[in-house]
Write a structure and sequence with these properties.
Number of domains: 1
Order of helices and strands: HHEHHEEHH
Helix content: 40-55%
CATH class: Mainly Alpha
Strand content: 5-15%
CATH topology: Arc Repressor Mutant, subunit A
Number of strands: 3
Length: 108
């Protein structure tokens, strides 16, 4: 199916379903504006390269805003755009579902 034939849901899921992408959105949603290093520390298993790729992709599709200040050293921070904030409810719903499914899993 050509891109132009994609349903809106398919297009959205293709954009946000890459590895780490939803978790990056969750971290930004629950922590607010963050610098790159802060994000990297919160997601210690992600490589800087992949984090950069995901953030650029999210910026390109208007879900994440990148703020750059030309100080020494440069300060770059990321936050959800209004469009990105629309994902808050689905993210919290997924978090609740994950808690129900996996909390106490080690005990079962």
């Amino acid at each position: 199916m050509a891109e132009s034939e994609c349903t809106p849901l398919e297009k959205l899921l293709n954009q946000i379903s890459g590895q780490w992408t939803m978790y990056i959105l969750w971290i930004l949603d629950t922590n607010g504006t963050m610098r790159f290093g802060e994000l990297k520390r919160k997601i210690d298993s992600i490589s800087p390269k992949v984090l950069t790729q995901r953030l650029r992709m999210l910026e390109e599709i208007g879900i994440v805003y990148r703020s750059y200040e030309s100080t020494i050293p440069p300060q770059v921070s990321y936050e959800l755009t209004e469009r990105g904030k629309e994902l808050s409810k689905p993210l919290y719903d997924l978090c609740d579902l994950a808690s129900r499914w996996y909390d106490g899993e080690a005990n079962t």
